[in-house]
Write a structure and sequence with these properties.
Elements: H1 3-29, E1 45-46, H2 62-72, E2 78-80, H3 91-97, E3 101-106, H4 112-128, E4 133-140, H5 150-164, E5 168-173, H6 174-179, E6 190-193, H7 205-222, E7 228-233, H8 249-266, E8 269-272, H9 282-289, H10 316-335, H11 341-369, H12 373-403, H13 413-422, H14 428-453, H15 461-476, H16 489-508, H17 514-531, H18 538-556
Parallel strand pairs: 1-2, 2-3, 3-4, 4-5, 5-6, 6-7, 7-8
Helix pairs in contact: 1-10, 1-11, 4-5, 7-8, 10-11, 11-12, 11-15, 12-14, 12-15, 13-14, 13-18, 14-16, 14-17, 15-17, 16-17
Length: about 550
């Protein structure tokens, strides 16, 4: 393809990126019709009030609990707690004020002294508030965490039932009730957790209700005649996808509405997970761990129980950012030399649309996924590095497409190191080479975590899409005979690792969602752009290596 054809191809690819960005903004704001939840208040919801705190160890005041339950009472008849320590012993008294019942939680962990303190407090609270306590949940997923034996849990259940004379139960993932049916004899009811997203084989939202129905039926067969409470079920609103199970506001609203309609129609006792987002859980479970709430950390409802639902309520923000980006980039193209011409202006406008939409996505990503100042700084530094790489690639492409300037080659890291040691002769080629090396290292490190232990790790696509696309375009529009810098062994290693990791991630996720395919595309684009979509003839490569070696020798002397 001649140079004119390559310039046309560049404009078409950037225009396609701009159109795709606009479509993503439109899709996020598109109202999705869903079945309505049942009229009236829903059955019960998990309540952990530490959402405003850095950890779950914070002590809650009665005033804070009162504000939370006043809001929940409009939607729910009951709340489930998980402990009575750190101020949570006040929940039943506050719940009475708003006409709510309580599934009182007793936290059982590996420490015997802590367990005894929980049981003593729960016994006191039960004696003072027996009229509002539906049942006492002695332990939550203790078997799942391997913190107590079945025999020890049975002993705790029997002690609490004898001391309070109230119904007692133990709550765990449904598979653990199947593995430990002996606990049923000590429990007044069977409390199971059904979370389709967290299954060992994740269930997509379209099949989630069928999965919950099948699990419930299986538990009925295993424990005939027993009352079964679904103690946790729900869907996350944000975080990494797992196979076909994709966290989103629309999917969470869909599952909650479909499940509650089915539960009411068939008389199933249930508790939804959970009332409020818990950002402190992100430390152990990633973004998704803190994103199960029906309300956000500020107490705002994430979606309604009736009517259409949008993935992003502030959906106009993305379109406005895209429009502002187009205007800003056109101004830059008009005032910054060299004169861009029509092709250059079109390139800047289309790139501005994509950049504006990407900035809106980055702001949402950073505000949602950054838990503290350290994470804000780390993610912000990564975003700044990416923006610098994108702008440098865009400047080079604009000068070539709009003003006929030569495209700078991207220097290898060895050449960059030579120039840094000489402290002179720095050029755009070296800037691009350094920025590309940083992106290679960053993606290689992220992929190592995603491949070896990816269950709770996010895909930071909003931070990386622009710089990777810019560098890939810069390499893709080069001519067949264009000079390309030699690569250091570590650059080659990382460039080969990226597509390999992408394949492993696709296999692990079964290729069932758009996110993992997007991540794989980024890996392939960066690797392809690094190695060169078209390698120069062997003679040119050898000549370039000799020139690079000569430069290093001069620097050493």
């Amino acid at each position: 393809m001649n140079e004119s054809g390559r310039k046309l191809a560049l404009l078409m690819m950037v225009a396609a990126g701009a159109i795709f960005s606009m479509l993503r903004c439109w899709e996020a704001g598109r109202p999705v019709s869903l079945p309505d939840a049942p009229a009236g208040r829903l059955a019960c919801v998990s309540y952990t009030p530490a959402r405003r705190m850095a950890t779950a160890e914070a002590v809650m005041t009665p005033a804070q609990i009162d504000a939370d339950l006043r809001r929940l009472a409009d939607r729910f008849q009951c709340v489930r707690t998980y402990a009575v320590a750190r101020g949570l012993d006040a929940v039943p008294a506050v719940a009475r004020k708003y006409g709510m019942k309580v599934l009182l939680g007793v936290w059982i962990g590996p420490d015997a002294a802590d367990n005894e303190a929980e049981i003593r407090t729960a016994t006191r609270v039960a004696a003072e508030n027996a009229d509002v306590i539906r049942a006492i949940v002695v332990g939550n997923e203790v078997l799942l965490r391997h913190e107590q034996s079945e025999e020890a849990l049975r002993g705790y259940l029997e002690r609490v039932r004898a001391a309070t004379r109230l119904p007692v139960t133990y709550a765990d993932v449904w598979e653990f009730w199947r593995r430990h049916p002996g606990l049923a004899g000590a429990a007044s009811l069977i409390t199971i957790h059904i979370l389709p997203y967290w299954e060992n084989h994740p269930v997509a939202v379209g099949a989630a209700l069928d999965h919950a129905r099948e699990v419930y039926a299986e538990m009925q067969r295993q424990f005939p005649g027993r009352h079964i409470l679904i103690g946790e079920t729900g869907w996350p609103t944000a975080g990494r996808p797992r196979g076909g199970a994709i966290p989103s506001r629309v999917n969470a609203a869909r599952y909650l509405r479909e499940f509650t309609r089915y539960a009411v129609e068939h008389g199933i006792d249930y508790n939804l997970f959970e009332a409020y987002d818990q950002p402190w859980k992100r430390a152990a479970e990633g973004t998704v761990g803190g994103s199960w709430g029906l309300y956000d950390v500020n107490g705002a409802s994430k979606f309604s129980l009736q009517g259409p639902v949008r993935e992003t309520e502030d959906w106009r923000g993305g379109l406005q950012a895209a429009s502002a980006g187009a205007l800003l980039f056109m101004i830059i193209g008009a005032v910054v030399p060299p004169r861009a011409g029509r092709r250059g202006m079109f390139l800047m406008a289309a790139a501005g649309v994509a950049a504006g939409a990407a900035l809106a996505a980055q702001c949402e990503y950073l505000s949602r996924d950054s838990r503290d100042a350290a994470e804000w700084m780390l993610s912000g530094a990564g975003a700044a590095w990416g923006w610098l790489a994108f702008f440098c690639a865009l400047i080079a492409l604009r000068s070539w497409a709009g003003a006929g300037a030569a495209l700078p080659r991207v220097a290898g890291i060895e050449e960059v190191a030579v120039v840094l040691r000489r402290r002179g002769g720095w050029s755009m080629s070296h800037t691009l080479g350094l920025l590309r090396f940083g992106l290679l290292a960053g993606l290689s490190y992220l992929n190592l975590g995603l491949v070896l232990d990816g269950r709770y790790r996010d895909f930071p696509i909003p931070l990386l899409a622009l710089p990777v696309a810019g560098l890939a375009l810069l390499e893709a529009v080069r001519g067949r005979d264009a000079e390309r810098a030699p690569l250091a062994p570590e650059e080659l290693l990382m460039a080969w690792w990226l597509p390999l990791a992408a394949v492993l991630i696709l296999i692990a996720e079964k290729g069932l969602n758009f996110t993992v395919w997007s991540w794989a595309a980024l890996c392939v684009l960066l690797a392809g752009g690094t190695c060169g979509w078209r390698r120069p003839p062997a003679g040119e490569q050898q000549c370039a290596r000799q020139q690079s070696q000569a430069g290093r020798e001069v620097a050493v002397k």
